[in-house]
Write a structure and sequence with these properties.
The protein is α/β, with parallel strands linked by helices. Helices cover 41% and strands 20% of the residues. It has a seven-stranded mixed β-sheet, sandwiched between helices. The protein has a six-stranded mixed β-sheet with strand order 7-6-5-8-9-19, sandwiched between helices. A three-stranded antiparallel β-sheet has the order 3-4-20. Helix 1 packs across helix 4 and helix 3 packs across helix 7.
Length: 469
């Protein structure tokens, strides 16, 4: 570990009273996460509330410059942030992982800073003139996940600050050090008290959700936890953005070239070792090319090394925590017990150090098997055979989760036709999970509500105000 990384970790951790955080790949200690009290949270909200009017009054240009300066700071500390993230979350440095995530933080800050949200003229005729303005809400409470702790924190922080709000963020208890380090770096470029982090257990998140001085809650995480937050926040009529669980379907059409699409399908499913809400979690493949698709995916998967994140050759890592490992193991066992065919993986070393679960492909599985209908959130992909496209679409739309989906085809027009039949917040063509800070993103059904990214995302952290004359 570099001296710089050690210095950053020393500034954010609390060795005396903090909670020990272990590396999910090795079991070694990463550091000690501070544990906030209810009083600490109340004090942070009070500071953010006091700072918010001045931040809002500073003007758009000042806020844009501050976000660009924050992006500069992230880039200046990119390697130490990536190494800490790799040790705490488990994801490798390379591939679409730790260095990628830190780079995305800077990119989202810059793109969000440069978005323009102008007042909208609604009516301007002989009857009168009405203009929609967008004002800051006040204090935004952000509650983040453990799978992409830095990047998703920026998804919450950047638009909120851009619109003149202040932010109190509660990191996941699994990955608090990564977010605390990110906030430390961001605050080297931001005014005092516009961004405050309060690490702790679930009671801190619950108190933040209920706090009367918090105007909005942004949450990314499981549907179950999201429902609890919605209930907690409803008493004070808070605005909310909920990006919740997904069980994304991908449908391959008969005209697809299996070898041309195999790597894209692989990374759609296995990015961050499958620990992504909008990962491809169930793949429907027509009987005519089923075996070819399976073989192509096996060939790609075999080339992807899994191991300790700080070892440069690896692109897949461990599951972040043992509870998630046990979920994946249970679901794969259920598939095997049902007679499904394991093409690759599926036999973890129960005694090995770290939360490693092998890259697993499961074929000839019943469409109602638990591995298909429950979100696995790990490196196991069920591949479901179909003979009728209408049936595949019905299966894809059958679940309560509807975050993302994808269609894979050599015919873009045909793919778009099928995509239009799918229920999801986003449907990708010949890719899966490719988010962009300019393109709105959100879920349908129990995958949440509210939009992130782009101008639509700015509106979600603003109070619409119509002036009519």
């Amino acid at each position: 570990m570099s001296t710089q990384t050690t210095d950053l970790l020393d500034r954010i951790q609390d060795p005396e009273t903090g909670r020990e955080i272990l590396d999910p790949a090795t079991g070694e200690r990463v550091g000690f996460a501070p544990q906030a009290t209810a009083e600490d949270l109340d004090a942070a909200v009070a500071r953010a509330l006091a700072a918010q009017p001045g931040w809002a009054a500073s003007g758009e240009d000042t806020r844009r410059q501050a976000l660009h300066a924050a992006a500069d700071a992230v880039e200046a500390h990119a390697e130490e942030l990536a190494r800490l993230l790799s040790r705490e979350q488990g994801k490798p440095l390379n591939g679409p992982n730790a260095r990628f995530e830190v780079g995305a933080c800077a990119a989202w800050l810059r793109t969000t800073a440069d978005l323009t949200l102008e007042p909208e003229v609604i009516v301007d005729d002989e009857s009168g003139r009405a203009i929609m303005h967008y004002r800051p809400l006040g204090v935004v409470g952000a509650i983040g996940p453990w799978n992409w702790p830095m990047m998703i924190s920026i998804w919450q922080i950047a638009p909120s600050l851009r619109m003149g709000n202040t932010v109190v963020i509660k990191p996941s208890g699994y990955t608090p050090l990564s977010v605390l380090a990110l906030v430390e770096v961001l605050n080297s470029a931001l005014p005092a008290d516009v961004l405050l982090a309060v690490p702790g257990r679930g009671d801190i998140g619950d108190r933040l959700s209920r706090h009367p001085d918090v105007a909005k809650i942004m949450f990314t995480g499981s549907t179950e936890t999201g429902k609890s937050i919605v209930k907690a926040a409803s008493d004070t009529m808070k605005r909310m953005t909920m990006e919740l669980g997904g069980n994304d379907a991908g449908i391959v059409l008969e005209d697809a070239d299996p070898r041309a699409l195999a790597e894209g399908i692989f990374w759609g499913a296995f990015i961050n070792t499958g620990q992504t809400c909008a990962a491809l979690k169930r793949l429907y493949v027509p009987d005519a090319i089923y075996d070819e698709v399976c073989e192509a995916l096996i060939e790609v998967a075999k080339t992807m090394p899994m191991g300790i994140g700080l070892e440069e050759q690896n692109v897949l890592g461990p599951l972040q925590n043992r509870a998630q490992w046990e979920i994946v193991d249970r679901l794969v066992r259920a598939a095997k017990d049902s007679g499904a065919r394991v093409l690759l993986g599926g036999d973890p070393d129960q005694e090995a150090a770290g939360n490693f679960y092998p890259t697993t492909l499961v074929a000839d599985i019943d469409p109602q098997n638990p591995l298909v209908i429950e979100e696995q959130f790990g490196p196991a992909l069920p591949i479901i055979r179909y003979t009728d496209l209408d049936q595949a679409v019905e299966w894809a739309n059958a679940l309560d989760e509807a975050l993302g989906s994808s269609v894979w085809s050599a015919d873009p027009a045909r793919a778009v036709e099928v995509a239009a039949r799918l229920v999801a917040g986003t449907t990708w063509i010949n890719k899966h999970g490719a988010v962009d800070p300019r393109i709105p993103f959100g879920g349908a059904r129990e995958s949440g509500f509210g939009m992130e990214f782009g101008v639509a995302g700015l509106k979600e952290v603003a109070q619409p105000h119509v002036i009519s004359q």
